Structures are given as structure tokens and as C-alpha cells.
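PROTEIN ENTRY
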Amino acid sequence: MAMNLGHQIGTLSGKQIPTEFAAGEQPSSATASPSAVWKSPAGNLRSNSPQENASPPMLTPPLTPNSAGEWSYLINLPMLRPDLSVACQAFATSSPLEMTVEEVAGTAEWTDGGRKDEKKGVSVFVMMPLDSVTNGNTVNRKKAMNASLHALKSAGMEGIMIDVWWGLVEREAPGAYNWGGYTELLDMAKKHGLKVQAVMSFHQCGSNVGDSCTIPLPKWVREEMEKDSDLAYTDQWGRRNYEYVSLGCDSLLVLKGRSPVQCYADFMRAFKDNFKHLLGDTIVEIQVGMGPAGELRYPSYPEENGMWKFPGIGAFQCYDKYMLSSLKAAAEAAGKPEWGSTGPTDAGHYNSWPEDTPFFKKDGGGWNSQYGEFFLSWYSQTLIEHGERILSSASSVFEATGVKISVKVAGIHWHYGSRSHAAELTAGYYNTRFRDGYLPMAQMVARYGAVFNFTCIEMRDHEQPQDALCAPENLVRQVGLATKEAQVPLAGENALPRYDKSAHEQILKASSLNIDGSSNDREMFAFTYLRMNPSLFLPDNWRRFVAFVKKMNEGKDSRRCWEQVEREAEHFVNVTEPFVQEAALALMP
């Protein structure tokens, strides 16, 4: 899920979002109280006048990309005592942490007896910084990483999520894998007793919101894309997107004698062979990248170079010659060859709104025509087949290793309340007022016994722009019902960094999966928190986060109130303060 924090903050007046919903469906009745809402500038998002970005009072400013990467956010830490200069000097000597994980567990044990029952609750993982491994294939800021992992384990975290970048490991030549930094990082996770979700990241880093570093596709892949620009996704105006190789050539030998899917399978196989001693023990999940930002979708809303801005509807990405060839074949098979020469030409631009376009408007829009049904079915089914090809390879590679495979789907919640759901359609999700686009994806994931991972779990409807008909809560509800029907485990992520209690409570609510009154025995498979950074270790943020993790671990059947858990968290934070501060200091530039 790729959203800018400022983009997401809507007008919070305590009113319901004026969305359109199907008959019988009840919109969210949540209202905003003065003490619990995000303040935002007044004005319509469609205005051309500039607006100031607003943030919740409890949040620290978002990370800003710079030469030092994600770690160089904090210039000073006002919460640290002056006498911590001794700790700073200790770090200069590269001395190891003094407390072991076992000592921490014994010192800071929860008053109710420690870890959650294995059969209850939702395990929490934390995403590592995108630049955790450097371009030189070493661990980035090793002391900071070691101290941070120590702190996370002390808080009862199940584990961490790590992006394993194709563009780093197989950068120089086909089949030449350099696992250097990942070997060291995974060993560190094992040392601290943390489980790992490893993401096979076959996309470029640096093109999505929150990307604080740039990691392009492998050099030899880019060389082939320069020779044949149709290997890149293309919009109707001929603009190329180099985040991810177009799925139109999935099975073609276009990458130095191999197909893209073969390259992905070989990469995963090399990962398995190199880390087989950790699979099923330390490495417990493999999330397989399937598109931009690692998500199963088309790059319909690229922020790079200001191409798209929230909440634009995005644009279809089916104009490279390989995708057009597939469209032509589908049209001929349907007996409509005239539909096979191009995609919709009346679907607006990246920053259009549904009612501004003939194709997406609610009354008489092309999306609801015979042609629209044909095109959208082909566009979405082609995406699902792409996911199935990669998922099939991953399942074969990691069979009998004890790891779980997962697939990430984007939480595209803007214009969800409209009839056409335009932003979802351009991304490849054929979800409209009259059609469930998430059930087919869930069924595909279920066929391989994988996990369906979804974003925007932390969002509330009333926090979003009202005129953009955003409805993240209803979207999460729909996905929850689809995964229930498909009998596939559902996991979640937050789309944006949040440290406030309101977001934590929303995640707890969503993770309980109390959707239709009959989900008493069902909870989310896991939750992954975005992302580890210096702000997480600020005292107030850390205290809230520790309490949140405890509540997640306890599960939805826990009868203990927030206040009781927060009191325990306060005690826990005090006990573990030395090495949490040590982690915060280590993250300073």
C-alpha cells in the first residue's frame, strides 16, 4: 500500500462519509471526538490551491529521504538524559549489548506470566528499514540494528520482516547471488530469538511513498529493458514504468535466456539452498513479491516524478506489446476482435475522478457495459494468473520446508464508495458495486495454502477525505468476508506509520475479524507493523506500542482493559529503559 501521510488526512468534522453503498449495507457510524481525531486543513481535495499537510498531534514528523537512508531521521533525542553520554561513548567502542535476551525475559516478565498462549492472539512482526542491507551487501548500521532487535524482542515481538532485494542479491549477472548482508542479518535475528518473514522483493525500491532509498532492478535486467522497452508496464500515453517487469512477458525468454517467472523461481531456490538451516525455525514465512511495492497489482498509481497524486483514479497499464498481444487474443476468443486493439481511451488521466470520465461515471459508464465487462475481466484475470504462476513456483520451491507462503494485496480504499471503484479497477482489482473482486484472488491464494496479506488495517473511515468516498473499514470488512469464504488465512499490515492509540485500537478491532457475528474462532494469522525507525523508540510511542503488542498477543477473548495493560507496559518500559534508550541512541545519525 503506497500512500503519503499528508494525502491520507481528510476533513474530520465528526460526520459520516457521504458515500454510496449497496442496498442493505450500513456505512460506518463512527464519529470523531475532539480528543481522538486528526486535524486537517479545510477544503476540498479537488481544489487546485495548495494545502498544508497535517499530522496527528501525537505523531512525530514522517521520515524524509536523504543520503543517510532511513536511519538519519533523528538529529537529537530530547527524552534522553544527559548522563547517557556514557552510553554514547560505549557505542563508539562497538561493545556488545550487556543483557542477553534470556536475561531480558527474566527481568521484564509480564505480571500475568509472560508469553501468550500459542493458540490465541495475533503475533506481531515489525518491518525492518528498506535499506537494512547496503549496496555493498553488508548490514546497514550494524550497532543500531543489533540494539533495535534487542529492544523489539524485549517487547514480546514475534519477529521481523525483511525485504530481500533482487536488485541487491543478483545485481551484477544472472545466477550470481550475493547473500552477504542477509546472512549476517538473519543470523542476528536468530541470535535474538526473533522469527523472520522474508520478502522476495522483485520490484524496484524508490518509486513508492515511504521509499527512503533507491534499489533498482538488477543491472542485467535493466539492460534488457533498455533494449526492449516493452518489457516495462506502459500506459496509454506511452509512458513506461520500470518498477517491475511487465507480466505480459511472464513466460517469454526475454531475460538473458530465461523468463521472468524462471528468474523469480531460481532466485527463491537459491535463497532456500543458502538458508535451508533457518527455514521453518527462524524463517517462518516467505512473502512473494508480485508487482510494484511487492503487491499483486499493476503500477496504476505511480508517485515517481509526481505522475499520480492521491486520490486520483490512476491509469490502466496494458499498453506494452506483450499485454496488447494478450488482449488481442482474448478479444478474438470472445468473438469481438474489434475490442482487442487497445484498452479504454475514455478512462481519464492519473489524477482524474470517476465522475469526470465517461468510462468510470456511475450512470452509463463504460465500466458497466458489455465491453467494460470484457476488458476488466481480462485485465484482472491476467493479474490473477500472474500471481498464480509465481505462487505455484514458490510453493514448489519451499515445499516441506516448514515455511508459510504469503501474498500481499493493496488496500485501495479511495473511491471505494463510488459505483465503479475506479482506483481499484485500474490496479487490476475487478471490484465494483455489483461484483466482488477480492474473492477470486482469495480463492487463488487458497489453492496453494498460502496467506492473504492486506494493508490499510489501521485506517478509520472518518480519518479519510470525505469527497473522495474513502472507506477503508468497509474495504477491510469485504476482504475479511472474502478470505473467510475462501477459507484462507488473513494477515494484515498498516499502510502508514502510526504511533497513536487510536490506530492501535483500530488494528486490534480489525485483527479480531468479528465481521459478521460468526467469526468467534477466527483471528488474523499475523500482523506486520510498518516500520522500525527512531520514532518508534521515543518514550510515549514505545510505551503505547508495547501495550499494543501485549493486547495483540492476548487475543480478542482477553477481558483486560487498555488501562490495565498500559499500566503493565509502563512498568515494563521502565525496567527495559536502558537498552531501549541504547537502541534510540544507536539510531542517531
